[in-house]
Amino acid sequence: MQNTTAAATEGIALKCGITGSYEFIFTLVPIVYGCNFVIGIVGNSMVVAVIYCYMKLKTVANIFVLNLAISDLTFLITLPMWATFTATGYTWPFGGFLCKASGGLVMFNLYTSIFFLTALSIDRYLAIVHPMRSRRLRTVMYARITCVLIWLFAFMLSVPSALTRDVHKFTNYTKVCGILHPTLENAVSLKKVLLAISLMKSLLGFLIPFIIIITCYCLIGRALVGARHIQKSSRSRDDEVLRMLAAAVLAFFLCWVPHQVFHLMQMLSQLKLVESCAILDIIDTAMPFTICIAYFNSCVNPIVYGFVGHNFRKNLLRLLRCSPNAATGPHLSISSKMSALSFRASEALSLTAKGKASSDVK
């Protein structure tokens, strides 16, 4: 509901009315939120439990995956409130503080989730393409420092979103949790702040990380394909890693692109470039469903980054059976499997370089 507003004595009078207000939204969206909540809580809790109890925090990838799961869990606890908000016809009964906190946590999860995915992509690139040169950088200490910096940076980026949200009372006495509405005194400054938040969400929350992720995966794919020509026996393992990387990129893209497209349209409406009530109604009707898809990324992450590995599934079964953490030998994690693959890839690439050098000498 980002349409043009003006102050009124009994509340906020909307130029186009409360757009995007339909019964099927109030029924369907809360159901989807509920499914996301249950699936996300169970999946991410299992990831945290398996990594902490069995796989331990001894690898860079495990640390990033654990923090990613915790980030998703902190966001998922707000979904029951958003489900109630939608089911009651966009009526917010939880007060101003929870409105600000929940809105801030949504943006906080957006940034932390995407930053951790980016960190994972960079770590995989270094582990596979530059395994020897990156040993000093790919340590547990540096990974923990990176996680702290990500949490702090994401918190700083999410604070403006929390501060610019509040509970608004409309002329029909409906209380809505939404962004602040301009007054005569702060119209220009508030417009600039909201525009800056929207630009940060599009650039730092999607476009720049997506470019980094795509670049890393393309370089990884090129290195693995080049190594395959030297070591034919590793083809099945290469295929497994490439499939996982492709699934990660595809999940990220499919979950966030629809929301970012309508977010861009919403930003155009804030700039008064789109003022048609019909278009605003389309935006506000589609936005809850694009948000549902984006929130589903919190459910997909445990599948893409945890359950794809045979060792993870084995440890999950041990957790469900309440098996003790016996010292049965080292457990291979996602990163250790990739590291083993990266050494084979680097050896193959070095053999290729030596072969070319010897041919040049001859």
UniProtKB/TrEMBL annotation:
It holds the Pfam family 7tm_1. Signal peptide: none annotated. It comes from the Eukaryota. One of its GO terms (biological process) is neutrophil chemotaxis. One of its GO terms (cellular component) is external side of plasma membrane. The keyword Disulfide bond applies. Keywords: Cell membrane, Disulfide bond, G-protein coupled receptor, Glycoprotein, Membrane, Receptor, Transducer, Transmembrane, Transmembrane helix. It is a multi-pass membrane protein. The keyword Disulfide bond applies. Residues 43-305 form the G-protein coupled receptors family 1 profile domain. It is found in: Cell membrane. The chain crosses the membrane at residues 31-54, 61-83, 103-122, 142-163, 193-220, 241-262, 282-308. Receptor for angiotensin II, a vasoconstricting peptide, which acts as a key regulator of blood pressure and sodium retention by the kidney. The activated receptor in turn couples to G-alpha proteins G(q) and thus activates phospholipase C and increases the cytosolic Ca(2+) concentrations, which in turn triggers cellular responses such as stimulation of protein kinase C. Belongs to the G-protein coupled receptor 1 family. This is Type-1 angiotensin II receptor. It comes from Cottoperca gobio. The gene is agtr1.
